[in-house]
């Protein structure tokens, strides 16, 4: 799959809550084929303090309308700059980058687990699984009711289970506390979210012998495997999160 | 027509834009974005005798106008290079140069002997300036006697073009350039990264697992330019300027200050096409200024 660098037009900038927003981008040329789990290296203009590009997951793709979406959390100056972009502005991207989630075997039951802005790559995955004939369940974890995002969108792909840390919606606790996990009935679990959540879900999957893929969010320099900055320790040695990942089978990781 | 070519001894380069080691992988990573053969040369990532895993994560921190890295020469070693990388990169129609590193003088010598045998590698860049390894690297490049010893030993076994990459983390970089020249180096390249540091105040810890790392990017350009200017006035061998070159005007500054050629480093992370754009930019600049040969501007400010 060929990587490209290009300016894309902002079609919309939708704020989901205090610090999460979605940029919708439209291509001048036909957008390339993208796979769930892949990301873009987004250029941040305007400040020497935000020198490097920011890796952002592909959230959703609409080939028919030649558009795709990036779901972004404001985590610092770079993402704050992105949050101020307006319709008609241009954004320079290197994309599509990285590997992708694998499909389950035919007839296998899969669960997508996302926490906070970690839901970013999972919507594209859920839609992709659905269009490939699977019916994945989704388990989403948020801090509280105000932080819930993309619930409607996931609902359209299948059954959605919810947890909030304060119990203001869904079951109270972390995703790994949810009752849907009390009797293991999945063959494959996909996970993206904060490190503590990835490790908790990975632990659950190892204990119950469930295949599991996680999407990592390491700091990146180039995004194309040249700088070797974003490495993760694996049983095959240090690998680049940007080119060997960002999706890894948990059995490969030295956690 | 504008002539952009230059040479190191009898080795010809089609233009003065090369890529800096450790920022351009093996070239293959950039093939989707550009024709690598349009460059004057590429310097492949630092290679060692044995495979190296490098330092632990985190090994990168963004800083104003730059970045710190402490990769620590992660690479798969010379055996892997010969078998899996060399067959591909030897197909590039440009000068493919290997950057070599070692813990001991003998490591450098053994590597140079191995690479001497590779027909399509016309030069090596002797890295005595990596700040991110416990042994070797910068230890050689910050001590005049050690620098002399390793350059002399490699020169004795390597007959093709020898470029010595200098460390800026010294009191007087000119002394090191002179030693390289005295010991028979064909060219010097400078600067490698400046030793730096960053602290993550949220976690109250160093940003890098190694605490210190090498600073690169536009933040170091004025320092690099000053050093290139000093060295270019002091040695007769060609000087290759490196340090924070992001665009054509940065590159031209180095040429006017005395660099015969430049290497593009960190810029390739932000714009993978930066190096080829700079080739075209230099061509346009010279045409605009009515120069027919790049040599006319090299070291212009140093002439009487």
Topology, element by element:
The complex is a heterodimer of chains A (255) and B (304).
Chain A: E1 4-17, E2 20-26, E3 39-42, E4 54-62, E5 67-73, H1 77-83, E6 90-97, E7 110-115, H2 120-131, E8 137-142, H3 151-155, E9 160-164, E10 171-172, E11 188-192, H4 195-207, E12 211-215, E13 231-234, E14 237-240, E15 247-249
Parallel strand pairs in A: 7-8, 7-11, 8-9, 9-10, 11-12
Antiparallel strand pairs in A: 1-2, 1-6, 2-5, 3-4, 3-6, 4-5, 12-15, 13-14
Chain B: E1 6-8, E2 11-13, E3 17-19, E4 41-47, E5 60-63, E6 66-69, H1 77-89, E7 95-100, H2 105-116, E8 123-127, H3 138-141, H4 144-157, E9 161-165, H5 173-182, E10 187-190, E11 194-197, E12 199-200, E13 205-206, E14 212-216, H6 221-234, E15 239-242, H7 248-257, E16 261-264, H8 267-270, H9 274-288
Protein chains sharing the most extensive interface = A-B, 31 and 34 residues
**Low-confidence runs of at least 5 consecutive residues of chain A:** none
Our estimate of the beta-strand percent of chain A is 25-35%
Q: Strand pairing plus helix content of chain A: what structural class?
A: alpha/beta
Strand order of the largest sheet of chain A: 10-9-8-7-11-12-15
Helix count of chain B equals: 9
Q: What is the level-2 CATH architecture name of chain B?
A: Alpha-Beta Barrel
Q: Catalogue the unreliable spans of chain B.
A: none
H-E order of chain B? EEEEEEHEHEHHEHEEEEEHEHEHH
How would you describe this protein?
The complex is a heterodimer of chains A (255) and B (304). Chain A is α/β, with parallel strands linked by helices. Chain A folds into 2 domains: 94 residues, Beta Barrel (Elongation Factor Tu (Ef-tu), domain 3), CATH 2.40.30.10; 106 residues, Rossmann fold. Chain A is 15% helix and 35% strand. Chain A has a 7-stranded mixed sheet, with helices on both faces. With 304 residues, chain B is of the alpha/beta class. Helices cover 32% and strands 21% of the residues of chain B. In chain B, the strands form 4 sheets. An 8-stranded parallel beta barrel of chain B has the order 3-4-7-8-9-10-15-16, surrounded by 6 helices. In chain B, strands 5-6-14-11 form a 4-stranded antiparallel sheet, with no helix packed on it. In chain B, helix 7 packs across helix 9. Chain B is globular and about 55 Å long. The model of chain B has no long low-confidence stretch (mean pLDDT 96). The interface between A and B is medium-sized, with 31 and 34 residues.
